[in-house]
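Exercise 4. Each item below gives a protein and its sequence. For each, produce the structure-token representation.

Item: Hemoglobin GlbO (Tepidimonas alkaliphilus).
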Amino acid sequence: MNPSPTTPYAALGGEPAVRRLVHRFYDLMEELPEAQDVRRMHPPSLAHARQSLFEFLSGWLGGPPLYVQKRGHPRLRMRHLAFAIGPRERDQWMLCMRLALAEEVADEGLRHALTEALQQLADHMVNVTPAAA
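Answer:
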């Protein structure tokens, strides 16, 4: 009998599953008209973004700390200060992530937990507030 996975990384299926999730996330960002604002924040090629998110999620989910090994502490908010991230961009990012999770994570409990944790992370990244109406 195999022991149950002890990390979200293992529960997802390790490297191949995290890569599939990241690729689906960025594919959705390119495909969905509703994600156009967050897509425009990225360069034409998403290759670097795909690799960077994979490395970050690998360690964040309890797998190999690839991002930290290459770049040090993630300091995500600081690294994203150059981008105006408001509620609209956060919500577009989360739309792509929720859809990717729905397609790539079969375990409903794990999917819900990851969605909640990623929502908190996305909320933390907001660095501008919309102008008052």
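Check: The mean pLDDT is 92.
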